[in-house]
Structures are given as structure tokens and as C-alpha cells.
Write a structure and sequence with these properties.
mainly beta, six-stranded mixed β-sheet, 9% helix, disordered N terminus, seven-stranded mixed β-sheet
Length: 814
């Protein structure tokens, strides 16, 4: 099923977090006895299939038992979970305990709920949010609440804090010769009634029907299971015992997830009647814990809400965690709701002020790449924890600067911290992985009767903007505005760079965003105006994302002649020169991008100013190389490609290399379009720090280009080389570090003042994805990023072009 937010699709993903990962650890030997067998507290039963397909119980659990003759105090203890095959980044997930286990008694720890099952656990003695694997994992009973660090059986055996440990399925961390077997969606692993412990999981525990028992001796069906949410006596106009802050809890996941709560009181603060329909309620009687939000979203599915803002309501429903994407954080919601309206026209709870004072400077806690969901929120320390602690609540900001232009989905970005990494033109600069901008917030509107403002970067939302705080995969936390500030136009204008002088070779790069011959004339004309006017007709233009002549039509067409004819005609009509072009057509559907589109890099050049050295032999699968001659370096094929057979270019664009001559001097130009960031975990997601898996291929691509440049310089140390294009990575990234290895290239973006180093705006972050780099022989140049697209709501492309003007005469070989 699809759940749209506004006009964007929102995937329904009420699923447990996957914790099964490949192991990076090998077990060479196992201790014969894990530790001294416990004659008191033990792990008596483990079940990770709760809520899964075929399960009866709705959530996972760990049951503790006490084989001793005296109560076993659990104050300050924890149960901890590790995936069965831990990787280097796997972390133990901690659930803190309190209370005690009576002699011969049981103690029930409830963990994450799934979407299936029909029977609640008996009332839990402790509650966590760990999504345990049904088939393989390790549970430890630990004296203390600090996460364990051991990841092998031997290392864990040496940790004196571990009271008992159970590995099940194929777990690498276990007691004895092997893990307990038989765990599944419908089967737990359990000890016998005598709770015997020989420190051999395979011998001590076996598969059994899940049979959780709490400290009161209750079993499923004999207690309330926490499933009724406290019904307050059954009076439909009387609030139940559960409040919104109980639903939200002190972590990112609700301690009541999977349970049905009854007659939760609140005031309706916002109603969404399109997309993902529902409404927000907020309890005006807040608790004293800053970690627990007083607001929550009530999801009504396809049904339009029948409540209105200001209604005092009692809501019953199931507590659910909605994941907009597989790596995002979740939104705590009440689903399948029923509501009773007690009164209307009530005053709304006071909005939480969101500004430079209230939002912390640190962005998010880290978990070694693991999930931060189980960690207690620290809203005074981390900005994202602050936002999470107000999820669903009314928030307000005033006089905020726009840092991300309005888009087609009715969204824009503001900063509530006006001094945070401000760019020269009003944006917010993204300048390092370690210090993300904390003041950025996405703004949407719940008002369907008024058009959304058309804002550019640097404009201002004057006055107060107010609304519930929500979360989505498209940028994280956002304000669903019920009151929107007034737009004040700051008058941002597209830039126009100067024209090159007679002895300057102007070389530019421009990502023209999937341009093809079937595009509307308006798009082609606007992109052409950018080249002819804003870039002032460079001598050479490296274009990225030129598609084949019929665009996304997937029929084997790979030529771009018609596309380039229309584009160069439009440049001429806009006052530019009559450009010629060179490119190498890719093998059909081998270069990534839009299926059927066959995007490639293209050289445009002005033959009245610069000549192209045509040297036959280059094609989609043949590499060009460098030859040393008495006059310096030359290419074996021009245009040519850099090692197109290399794995670095799998399903990605291959660099285009060309040999140009300007005023008698040879200049080599390498046009690039590295692989995209698709597949990377989001900056705001639950895995911290986020994995940037796409970097691996870009680093390999950067290494290929670096090697090629080194071959040019080996043939001629004074070879004038310009490497440029959409590298899809930042100036501080390992991609750029790899590309410049050996100081063979200089990234020109770093020569600009810090506040001007950006070519792209994403989620309110002004950042650099497009680059021009030059070899050491290019000593006299003038470089400019020309801001004409990324900061504007009306864009011809989502990238800004840039140009370098090289005084070739002053760069003559010395």
C-alpha cells in the first residue's frame, strides 16, 4: 500500500528492523564452559518472532527466571541483544531493567512489536524496543546498563558483567559448543521448568511454543497485556489512563508499540485531508520529562478526518511505528482510530519555540553505524533529539530565512539559525560530514485553500509560522504549517559571469538534467540562455546528462545528434556562437541514468576560438591512452574514454577525454559524471553515522581519472589539463581526495571564499557536487561558479554551471 504525504508517495513499512547481517568475525575456538553456571537468575526463554508472519503473539520478548531461593534484584541490570552474525558496526542494543525476580518466579521483558499476531503479551515487567531476529541472535543478562562491546564467544566469556547469555539459531556468540536451535516465527527457545544451566545453550534450551510469564504469574490472555491502554472504567467520555507522552516514550520508539490504547485525550492541532490523511492531537497537560513528546499523529488512512482543529477528543487506536523508508527514522502514530469529540473551539496548546536558542548545536548521537532508536533522547544535547522530543507537537518559528527554494511538491526549507553557515546569497552551507546544519527545517502547508508561496533562497518567511512537527523520508523533520509566515522577496537574481578575454580559454561544465530532443522548447531555450548569456559563451562546454535523441524511449537509440542540433541552435538564437560538438555514444543501457535515456558527456566548442584535435579510434568500449612525443603528450583517441572496461564504470558514465588547441597550446579536457549518491543512508536517518555506500564506486572512478592524469603528466609534466563535471560528491569527500592524490589536480572550488563553495542545494543544504580541477601547469586562471538554478524555485536544471578562464599564454611551458 502507498501512503502519500502531500503529493509525495509514502511507503507503508510497518516492519521490524532487519538485524541479520553478514559476519566479519570467525570463531576459531570456543571455551568449554562459558562462565560459572548460574544457580539464580537465568534467561529462561527467548522469542524474536513476535508480530511476524504466522505468529500469534504480537511482540518479541525475553523471559528471565530465578532458580535460587531468594529474590534476585535487577535494579541497574539490563538485557542486551546482538545480531547472530555481528559485523564490525553491529552494536549491542540495551533494555534497562528494574525490580526483581522472585525465587522460582519469572520476569518478562517485552521488546519490539510487529504488524501481525493477535495476542498481546501479559503485562511486561520491563519494556524495550529491540527488533530481535526470529531465527538467530544473542541475548545477554548484564549487571549494568552500558552496552557490551564483545562480539565473539571468547571475548564475551571474559566479560564479568554478563550473568547469563543465550545464543540461538546460528549465533556466533553463545555459550558452549553451539547455540540453541529451533527458533522461528512460531517457536521460542526455552529452558526446562527447573531452569537448569550448564553453560551450553544447545543443551540447556530447545524449541518450544512461546509461553511468556510475567512476575505476577500471568500468561497471554490471563492479564491485560498492556493491550487495552487502560480503559479508565469503560465510560466513553472519560479519558483512559494512557497519555500521549506515555505513547511517545523517552526514545524514538514507543514503549507501547503494537498495543491498543484507549481514550487518549488531546486537542486537535492540525488536520491533513490530502495524501496521508489524519490529524495531530496534543495533550495540554504536559509531563515534566523533556524527552516525551505531548503530540502524536492519528492516521486515518483513506478516510478524511471528521475532527477539526480545536476539538477536544479521546482517541483509541493501535500504537504503530511508521517507517517512511527502510533507513529513515519512524513516526509514532495511532492507527485504526476511533475518536470521541468532547468539545470544540478549544484553545490550542502553546507552541514550542524553535530557534537558535532552543535547538542544540550538535546534530545527532552516533551508534557506530547502528540504530539510535533505543537510545534515550537527549533534547538538550542533539538537535534531532530535540525535534524528536517534539514530534507531533505544535512548534513555531519567526522571521526565518529560506535556504531551499519552493518545489513542485509544495515544500520549502528555512533555517531557524540565521547565523549558521550562511552563504553569500542567503543559503546554508554544508561544509563537513561532522557538523551538519541543525537549524534547517522543511515547511509544508496544511492549508489547501491558499496557494503555497513561491520562494527562492534568501527570501524570508516573515512573522510566525506554526504547525505540528512531522517527519518524512524526504528530508526529515518538517513543519506542517497551519499558519504560514508572509513571504518577503529578497530579490535574488541569476548571476552572469564576465566574458573571457582574447587570450583566455574559457572552459565550463553544466549538468543539463536529462536533456533530449523531445524536450519542450522552453526547457531547451532556458538552458541555451544559460550557456550563451549567463556563462557568456565559453570556448568549451562540458555537458552532463545529454540523452539520446528520443530520451527515455528504450528502443536501442544511442545517438544524440538531434538533441545537440536543437540545443546548439537555441544557443545560437540566444546570441551564442555556432558550437560544434564531440561525444562518444554509449552502449545501449550501459551507462546508468534514466532507463532508455543513455546519458553521456558531450563537448561543445566554439571553432572560431578553439580547435578540437580529432584522432580516430575511440568508441564506447575502447580506451584512449597517452603517448609521449617530442612535442609533449597526445591521446591515442580523441574524443576517447578512460578505461571503459573497468569495473569502476559499471552502470555509470565513462569519462570523455578530448584534446583541444588554443593559441597553439594543447589543452586536455576530461569531462566526468560520477555515479550518484543513490543508496546512501539519509543524514537524518536512524543509522548513525549514516553509511555512504555509493562512495566506494566514486572513489574507484576517481582513482581511474587520477591514474589517467598521472599518465598525461608522466608524458609531459607541463600538460595543461582540466578535469571537470558532476562528481556527485563534496570538496571534502574521499572522492575528491582520491582524485587529487599526488597533487596532480587542484580543486578550484577550494579557491573561493567558504561562503561561495556550492553548486547545488539539497534539503536546504548548499553544497558542492560539480567541480573543475586543473593540473599544476595551469597557473593563471579565473574561476567562477555561476548561480542560475539551484537557489531558485523556477529552475532550468538543478545544478549550477561553472567556468574557468585560463590565460594560456602565461601558462606556457617553463
Amino acid at each position: 500500500m502507498s501512503r502519500p504525504v502531500g503529493n509525495r508517495p509514502r511507503r507503508a513499512a510497518y516492519a521490524l528492523i532487519s538485524v541479520g547481517v553478514a559476519s566479519a568475525f570467525a570463531i576459531t575456538s570456543l571455551p568449554a564452559a562459558y562462565a560459572t553456571p548460574s544457580v539464580t537468575a537465568v534467561i529462561s526463554e527467548v522469542y524474536g518472532g513476535g508480530g511476524n508472519s504466522g505468529a500469534t503473539l504480537t511482540r518479541d520478548f525475553v523471559e528471565l527466571g530465578n532458580a535460587g531461593s531468594a529474590a534476585y534484584d535487577l535494579a541497574g541490570y539490563s538485557v542486551q541483544y546482538l545480531p547472530g552474525a555481528p559485523s564490525a558496526s553491529s552494536l549491542w542494543q540495551v533494555t534497562a531493567l528494574n525490580g526483581s525476580v522472585a525465587p522460582g518466579g519469572r520476569f518478562l521483558v517485552a521488546e519490539a512489536a510487529g504488524t501481525g499476531g493477535s495476542t498481546a503479551l501479559p503485562t511486561a515487567d520491563a519494556t524495550g524496543s529491540v527488533a530481535m531476529s526470529a531465527t538467530s541472535g544473542t541475548i545477554a543478562l548484564v549487571s549494568g546498563t552500558t552496552a557490551l562491546t564483545c562480539k565473539t564467544a571468547a571475548d564475551c566469556a571474559a566479560d564479568g558483567r554478563i550473568v547469563d547469555l543465550v545464543g540461538y539459531g546460528s549465533a556466533l556468540v553463545r555459550e558452549g559448543s553451539g547455540p540453541a536451535t529451533g527458533a522461528s516465527n512460531t517457536a521460542a527457545v526455552a529452558r526446562s521448568a527447573a531452569l537448569g544451566d550448564t553453560d551450553d545453550n544447545a543443551a540447556d534450551l530447545s524449541a518450544a511454543t512461546p509461553s511468556p510469564v510475567n512476575s505476577a504469574g500471568q500468561t497471554p490472555g490471563s492479564g491485560d497485556g498492556g493491550g487495552d491502554g487502560g480503559d479508565g472504567g469503560g465510560d466513553p467520555t472519560t479519558p483512559g489512563t494512557v497519555r500521549v507522552h506515555d505513547v511517545q516514550g523517552t526514545t524514538r520508539l514507543s514503549p507501547l508499540a503494537g498495543q491498543t490504547v484507549t481514550r487518549v485525550p488531546g486537542i486537535v492541532t492540525g488536520v491533513r485531508t490530502t495524501g496521508s490523511k489524519g490529524y495531530w492531537i496534543q495533550d495540554p497537560a504536559a509531563d515534566a520529562d523533556s524527552r516525551t513528546s505531548e503530540g502524536v499523529f492519528v492516521y486515518t488512512g483513506s478516510a478524511t478526518p471528521t475532527v477539526g482543529v480545536g476539538d477536544s477528543v479521546l482517541v483509541s487506536g493501535k500504537v504503530s511505528e511508521y517507517y517512511p523508508s527502510s533507513t529513515s527514522q519512524s513516526v509514532t502514530e495511532l492507527t485504526a482510530p476511533t475518536a470521541t469529540v468532547l468539545s470544540s473551539g478549544n484553545a490550542l496548546p502553546t507552541a514550542v519555540t524553535v530557534d537558535a536558542t532552543s535547538v542544540p548545536a550538535a546534530y545527532l548521537p552516533t551508534a557506530g553505524g547502528g540504530s539510535i532508536e533505543a537510545a534515550a533522547l537527549e533534547p538538550a544535547v542533539y538537535a534531532q533529539d530535540f525535534y524528536e522530543s517534539t514530534e507531533g507537537m505544535r512548534v513555531a518559528f519567526s522571521d526565518a530565512r529560506v535556504v531551499g527554494a519552493s518545489d513542485a511538491y509544495g515544500e520549502l526549507w528555512v533555517t531557524v539559525k540565521p547565523d549558521e553557515n550562511a552563504t553569500a546569497r542567503g543559503g546554508t552551507l554544508y561544509s563537513s560530514y561532522d557538523q551538519p546544519n541543525t537549524g534547517r527545517l522543511e515547511v509544508m502547508s496544511l492549508d489547501t485553500t491558499t496557494s503555497f508561496p513561491t520562494a527562492d533562497v534568501g527570501d524570508q518567511l516573515s512573522g510566525t509560522t506554526t504547525g505540528p512537527l512531522d517527519y518524512s523520508t524526504y528530508g526529515g523533520y518538517n513543519v506542517q504549517a497551519t499558519q504560514l509566515g508572509t513571504l518577503v522577496d529578497n530579490g535574488l537574481k541569476p548571476e552572469v559571469t564576465r566574458r573571457q578575454k582574447g587570450d583566455e580559454l574559457a572552459v565550463a561544465t553544466y549538468n543539463v538534467e536529462n536533456l533530449d530532443a523531445l524536450d519542450a522548447q522552453e526547457k531547451i531555450d532556458r538552458l541555451a540562455h544559460g550557456v550563451a548569456v549567463n556563462l557568456n559563451s565559453p570556448d568549451v562546454v562540458a555537458l552532463e546528462e545529454i540523452q539520446d535523441d528520443n530520451g527515455a524511449t528504450n528502443d536501442g537509440t544511442v545517438t544524440s545528434e538531434a538533441t545537440l542540433k536543437r540545443f546548439t541552435d537555441a544557443i545560437r538564437a540566444a546570441g551564442g556562437p555556432r558550437y560544434q560538438w564531440r561525444y562518444i555514444a554509449p552502449t545501449d543501457n550501459q551507462d546508468g541514468g534514466e532507463p532508455g535515456g543513455n546519458i553521456r558527456q558531450v563537448f561543445l566548442f566554439n571553432p572560431k576560438r578553439v580547435s578540437f584535435t580529432d584522432r580516430a579510434g575511440g568508441d564506447a568500449v575502447t580506451a584512449t591512452s597517452v603517448v609521449k612525443t617530442r612535442k609533449g603528450a597526445k591521446l591515442t583517441a580523441s574524443p576517447g574514454r578512460i578505461d571503459p572496461a573497468s569495473d569502476a564504470w559499471d552502470n555509470s558514465r565513462k569519462p570523455l577525454v578530448g584534446e583541444f588547441v588554443f593559441h597553439g597550446e594543447t589543452v586536455f579536457v576530461i569531462a566526468n559524471h560520477f555515479t550518484s549518491k543513490g543508496g546512501d543512508q539519509p543524514l537524518h536517518g536512524r543509522y548513525q553515522p549514516p553509511s555512504r555506500s555509493s562512495e566506494t564506486q566514486r572513489q574507484a572512478q576517481a582513482a581511474e581519472v587520477n591514474t589517467f592524469v598521472k599518465s598525461l603528466l608522466a608524458a609531459d609534466r607541463n600538460a595543461k589539463t582540466v578535469v571537470l563535471g558532476d562528481l556527485n560528491d563534496y570538496e571534502f569527500s574521499r572522492t575528491v581526495t582520491t582524485l587529487t592524490d599526488g597533487k596532480v589536480l587542484k580543486p578550484l572550488i577550494t579557491t573561493l571564499p567558504a561562503a561561495e563553495r556550492y553548486t547545488y542545494v539539497y534539503d536546504g543544504n548548499s553544497q558542492t557536487l560539480d567541480h573543475i580541477l586543473t593540473s599544476p601547469a595551469v597557473t593563471h586562471y579565473d574561476y567562477d561558479v555561476v548561480h542560475i538554478n539551484a537557489e531558485f524555485s523556477d529552475q532550468a536544471s538543478d545544478h549550477d554551471p561553472q567556468v574557468v578562464r585560463i590565460d594560456v599564454g602565461r601558462c606556457r611551458r617553463g
